[in-house]
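Example record

Each entry pairs one chain with its bound ligand, FE2/S2 (inorganic) cluster.
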Amino acid sequence: MVDSRASGGYRVFSLLDRDGPEPAPGQFYMLAAESHWEQRGGRPFLPRALSVADLSSPAARSSFVDDSPTNSERGGVQLDFLIEGVGPGTDRLCELEVGERVWLNGPLGNSFSMPRELSAGAAGAILVGGGIGIAPLAIWRKRLAAANVPARVLLGFRDERHSGGLDDLFACCEVALASDDGHVGHHGHVTDLLSAMLEGDDAKTAVVYACGPPQMLDAVAALCSSREVACELAMESPMACGYGACYGCAVPRGDGTYLRLCVDGPVVRA
Ligand SMILES: Cc1cc2nc3c(=O)[nH]c(=O)nc-3n(C[C@H](O)[C@H](O)[C@H](O)COP(=O)(O)OP(=O)(O)OC[C@H]3O[C@@H](n4cnc5c(N)ncnc54)[C@H](O)[C@@H]3O)c2cc1C
Ligand code: FES
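Structure tokens for the complex follow.
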């Protein structure tokens, strides 16, 4: 752990993966604290799945970490995660302190596709995030910008306590906000913003990328289907292994078969 800070009601923490390859946007890691990863002295928890929210190479990092010899000597990839404490595993990861070691397995799963891979005439991207689901969209927005693909970002939060990550992960980018309680942006659901945006002629060829709570993803998928707009969803299900061995993450498809979200996802075509 090289950094950890509060970000609204969430936390952003950064790990240095000395050996690992760079993750692609949409991929995730299984994480466990090296120490005190147990419940009241009992059995250790399984690792927990977290999407990578940002990454930086040693060169890019040198602008925002201290330039002590230890930092400048670091190799590898710095991975940033956005986390909300919702239970024992995420609470423990929120408590991690700088210098603590973390067990890390990844990058795992698949990644988002470029707009033209999903829709031949696609002009741009619309990113729709809800709550802690904004995490993988942050790294995806950066990747789209690097590829000169125009992207519009719509983010929604339940209330102030369940929001964060904007200044840390979406700075330098115009974001349209919505909140269920009206504390910021549009008073209502982020899907209201999407619906209005999809009315515009320029949105007809866009591709929508969404991550958030299941009800939000259902609403996004329905909207995109009714307007015939291509759409990818980054989904979640409880994961025990993260690499296809336990079938704990299986979710049913419309045709009666199942997919393992850790290897067939987490990104799926709506
Ligand atoms: C691919 C993937 C990426 C994720 N990315 C992030 C991220 O970037 N940031 C973040 O904060 N969280 C993320 N999560 C969710 C995170 O893994 C869970 O919140 C965490 O495992 C909960 O563990 P816990 O011990 O804190 O709480 P638990 O006590 O295990 O769970 C708390 C509550 O959440 C429910 N729950 C736990 N895991 C899931 C899940 N995966 N889907 C739906 N409900 C669940 C439980 O049933 C329970 O009601 C991601 C999950 C997946 C599968
Ligand atoms: S989490 Fe074990 S098979 Fe997907």
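The chain has two domains: 3-108, 115-236.
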